[in-house]
Every structure is written in C-alpha cells, then in structure tokens.
Fold this sequence. Notes:
By secondary structure, the protein is an alpha/beta fold. Helix content is 41%, strand content 20%. It has helices spanning 30-45, 59-72, 88-96, 123-137, 155-168, 186-199, 214-226, 244-251, 266-279, and strands spanning 2-5, 19-24, 49-54, 76-79, 101-104, 117-120, 143-149, 174-181, 208-211, 236-241, 257-260, 285-286. The longest helix has 16 residues, at 30-45. The termini are close together. Alpha-L-arabinofuranose (AHR) is lined by residues 28-29, 31-32, 105-106, 156, 184, 213, 215, 240-241, 261. Keywords: Signal. Belongs to the bacterial solute-binding protein 2 family.
Amino acid sequence: xxxxxxxxxxxxxxxxxxxxxxxxxxxxxxxxxxxxxxxxxxxxxxxxxxxxxxxxxxxxxxxxxxxxxxxxxxxxxxxxxxxxxxxxxxxxxxxxxxxxxxxxxxxxxxxxxxxxxxxxxxxxxxxxxxxxxxxxxxxxxxxxxxxxxxxxxxxxxxxxxxxxxxxxxxxxxxxxxxxxxxxxxxxxxxxxxxxxxxxxxxxxxxxxxxxxxxxxxxxxxxxxxxxxxxxxxxxxxxxxxxxxxxxxxxxxxxxxxxxxxxxxxxxxxxxxxxxxxxxxxxxxxxxx
Length: 288
Ligand code: AHR
C-alpha cells in the first residue's frame, strides 16, 4: 500500500480534522463495501464525523458531493474517484477553499498539486502477479484467455490490464482472445462471460478467465456452470481483491487464484491528513 504526498498549495491549519466528507464510488463489489465499512470505523475510532456520499458509480454524483462538502465547510475530503479524468475543476474548487483532498485506492490524471496525497496500491503490479501466475499454470499449453475489465476509464481497469499483459509478455502460448468491461459488478461479469462462452465454442475454446476483480469472477463462475462447464477445471480463473466469496469459490474448486488488495485505505489516509493538519507536514505514509 502506497501513499505519496504531493500537496503544496494549501495553508496549514492548527486543528485536527473534525469533519471529513467521503465521496465513495458506490457499492459495486464486496471489496468496495469493505472499504466503506473500514472507513466509517476508522473515522469513528478517531472521533471524526464522516459525511458519507454514495455516488452510485457516477462521476457527476461525486462532483456534486464534493461541491456540497465544500459548501458545508468540511475540514478535509476523501475521494475514491470512479474514473481517472475530469477532476481538475472540482479539485481546484477544493484547493481554493483550502480543503485538502486525499485520494483513496484509484488515481486521477489531474496535476498532483491539486490533492494532498493518494493512498492506493500498485495496480499494475496486481495485474502482473495475476499474469505471471497464469504463465506458470499454463506452461507449455496453448491458452486462450478471456478478460473481464473493470469500469472503463478507471485506473484499476487501465493498470490491471497493462500489468496482466506485462505478466504474460514473452509467453507465446498465452493469448487474450476477448476483453470487455464488466464494470466491476457480479451481474455484468456474468452477462459478459455468457457472451464470451457463446462466442468461444460454448466455452470449450477458453483456457482461462482473468477478471479485474473477484465479483466479476464470481458472476462468471455462475455463467460457466450454467453453460455446463466446470469453473476452476475446464476454465482456470484468476482475479483480484481477495474477498470472502472468492475464497469460498476457491475452496469449492471453482476458482484458482486471487491477488489480495487491502480495503483499509482510510487508516493511512487519516494518518496523512492528521499529520498535515497538525503542523502542515507533508509526510510519506507506508502501511502493509
Ligand atoms: O479500485 C479498487 C477496485 O474497485 C476493486 O478491486 C474493485 O472490486 C472495486 O470495485
């Protein structure tokens, strides 16, 4: 878990954060629900009043929430940005109001002077770990892979794709034959997997599924079973997050591997925020 500081343009305040606005993406996955729960817990433990806003996976809802937090005069804002682009104006508004913004788990393409810090994981590395796992599993065999991508334009969808391609680079036996977004949801993971199965000889031509998160993999497992194939055997399954449902699938032999991502982004985020609000220090925060 990494937190980098890049915040230069705000004045420091003597007080610690009393009220923090949290613009959350939505509840598209088990991982996201865990992140929400942990953020609320962390705020409560630190005596911080958290104003929570669920954007239902829509950027316009997040922008409206941030504007409302600014109008309410919160001490700081946590933002888990659904997509990477389109944040400049609202981040400038927060900066002009001298309200520090901390990004959680996804990155934005804006200039890093527009936010205090970003707490997240190495998303490219996650994809690479998944790719390398498949290279080991499929050694010497022709392996046609289908890929379920996360939300289009989101940093995990972009980086996990890049990372996986890096992981399988040089393995000429492995080829991504189909790749489409399932928007990080179980329902769309199932729906898109159904279309992959249909297009690939009822699934017989698919060797492995790479899903950018566990929820889409769980949806796809259902589709594979309904197509009369055995997930985890006929089609290898690797995904990312390590939520309880994928462990259940793995212990039933219906999934093969997951790459763990901690949902506790808020702990390091509040640490960085409190350090900054206490004395204006920009610190690097590292957490396991
Ligand atoms: O940004 C992190 C990703 O967002 C998680 O891996 C996924 O489950 C969630 O929707």
